[in-house]
Amino acid sequence: MAVAARDAETAAKARDDERRRRRDDSSPQLRSSAHLPDTPPGYPPELERVEVAVLLEAVFRHYGFDFRSYAFSSVKRRLWKRIHAEGLATVSQLQDRVLHDPDALERLLLDLSINVTAMFRDPGFYRAFRTHVVPLLRTYPFIRVWHAGCSTGEEVYSMAILLQEEGLYDRARIYATDINEIVLQRARAGIFPLEKMQEYTENYIRAGGTRSFSEYYTAMYDGALFDSSLTRNVVFSQHNLVTDGSFSEFHVILCRNVMIYFDRELQNRVHDLFYQSLVQLGVLCLGNKETIRFTRYEERYEALDLKEKIYRRVE
Question: In 3-state terms, what secondary structure has residue 122?
């Protein structure tokens, strides 16, 4: 009874957080900020670059979150979105608020983190995974999967469903990590917008799903609560790809549509981390705009599916 009560409380909190997020996203202030330029007219570009660098350095030194090697254009857009939402006028004003208000930091982290995701996003990837990777996984007595940059968890639940349908979930452990604890809380709760279920159902079917997608969730209010059995072998944990090291050896690493926001140096460092974290013949899965080409590891992988960016470590 205590566990059930705790689960109900967690679900209720997640629903409240989701409603609050939607309300914030639809506020007139944020709606108007979406139409504002990245940088206000007349803002000195040299000053902007200095302010951005100082803010990121300050966040790293004070809080330990390192965004210093993220692509400047992407970071700049996200910072100005937060500046407008906070009702501020300059990057320096945002720095002052973030350093003195931890709640402001949490809001900034939500903007700086990469939280664009969907269940069975890019269905062709999941079909290719079933074709090329599942047969390899059947050869292992136990499977360790690392989903790096998991955001709110939609793709983690997608992989759990796939492994369950392939009869592999009971001997698998999925480590789902993200830099942002707020999105990890949403992922743990397993509640996603009910309005998204039609889209997710279509993705699931195109991804090669073998059951009725509605069997995996219960509709409640404006949310879909996914079956807790899908996370019994999932560990959600905070991890920073920029500053944290490897924590195990994995048979599969998924990091899709995350590194496109990193500069070249940071991409190379993350590739170092992934290579060190894969077992021999382990599989690395990237997003469709990402690649291992032009990295020092290009010759150490073979492509299982070049289009869907699925690679196997061979050295």
Answer: coil
Tokens 């269905």 sit at which residue? 123
pLDDT at 16: 53
Residues in the chain: 315
Q: Which tokens belong to 122?
A: 């890019």
Helix (H) or strand (E) holding 32: helix 28-33
pTM for this structure?
0.79
pLDDT mean values, one per 10 residues, the chain (315 residues): 42 51 42 55 93 96 86 92 95 97 90 84 98 99 98 98 99 96 95 97 98 98 96 96 92 94 88 97 96 91 97 95
Question: Which strands sit side by side in the sheet containing 217-220, from one edge to the other?
Answer: 191-193, 223-226, 217-220
Closest CA to 270 of 114, 77, 137: 114
* Alpha helix stretches (DSSP H) within 113-212: 123-128, 134-137, 154-165, 181-189, 197-206
Residues paired with 285 in a beta bridge: 254, 310
Strand intervals (E) in 194-299: 217-220, 223-226, 234-238, 250-255, 278-286
In DSSP terms, 278 is beta-bridged to 250
- Top CATH class of 123-313 equals alpha beta
CA distance 73 to 165: 41
264 Cβ neighbours under 8 A, 6+ residues apart:
none
Which residue spans of the chain are classified as CATH 3.40.50.150?
123-313
Q: Which residues of 59-74 are buried (b: 16+ CB within 10 A; e: fewer)?
A: beeeeebbbbbbeeeb
